[in-house]
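Homework-ish question, so no full write-ups if that breaks the rules, but can someone show me the predicted structure for this set?
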Amino acid sequence: MGVLKWVLRVIPTLLFILCILAAFATHGFSLKSTLFSASPEEVLAEKMLTPLNADVGGEEFLKIVDSGVEGDKMFVTLSACSPFPANVTVKSASLYAGGSEFNLVGPVVIPAGGSAILRFEAPFNASSAQQVAAGLEVDKITLKMEVKGVEVEFQRFATPTLTAADRRSRWG
Amino acid sequence: MTTVEKASEGLWRRLNFFGVLAGILTFLLPFSGAWWHLTLGTDGGIFSILASPFEFKFLIFNKQISTAEAVRFSPLLWWLCLAFKLCYAYFGAALLAGSLLSLSEKHAESAETLVRYSALKLLWLVVAFVVVLFIATFLVNSATQLMSGALIDFSMPHIVGTGKFAMSSGNFHISAPINVGFTSTFAVAIIASALGIASRIYQKRISSVLKRA
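A: Not a homework solution, just the prediction itself:
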């Protein structure tokens, strides 16, 4: 019985030793690369970005489609592409353009990997209306989205802040 | 009752049913999936961790990171998980063999050795897993409390429950519910552990009956 007990105990020990040896042998007996072959953040980031790039296909997340005046309201419509392989609900959003604040009319669901139109409206304002009619430049956009219970809120400055050199080149 | 019937009844009593069941379950457990999960978000979430002593899986939008990517994380951890898998399949096989061998008077002693050796192995693993999880969640919570006021607000439930994760950075803010809990495979592991205890007690009874006879 002593032999059986001995054999029973030796087999798991051997299995562990062999697996540890195999881990080191397949990574050139380097402690660092055996413990962490690649940094976990690197692999996760790679994995996180793959669906983003694959589904959006390099398209911009937000793109201005149209702007104008309708009755006593000004409007801006944006096309939004889902950067995730899941439905994205835009709960609320606002943008600044031509000195006016536009608000999203209602929540919009962007289908997984697809796109949807976001319509923003603002009360009519004579000074802004001219700019709206001439074509808008969005200064700042704030979005509150929800993806699978995760709420994401971000601000994006669509028009980069002008530097002194830019101003000189534009206005002489 | 005839002599043949008596002998047949005695034979069935010598079979360690608990051990047979526990052995089969212990053998299959390493290949039956995760014991515990952590999900960021709802409805499958955007990120999940599935863990057991035999494997660690990461899922992003329900897409599993492949074996090759898992090896890239930590080759040593991957190989250790493999060692655990093989060892517990071996313990299950030993328990099954011991429980069946108890039918034979000739191999009764070997049967007892096999059952005594392997019956409680799963129980210790289940206890160790829960203790490690508890320590890990405690450390994560303590580390987050130490960083209070930082950009990350993180409350991790201890082993089972719901918590929250929030992070702010400049113009970006993200908040998500965290859901952690055990899977049905863990329930199977507990049942197998209980059967393992029962098999060890029953094996003692079989041995004492055989010694008296």
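Now go work out the reasoning yourself. Hint: The beta strands of chain B are 36-40, 47-52, 55-60, 63-64, 152-155, 161-169, 172-182.
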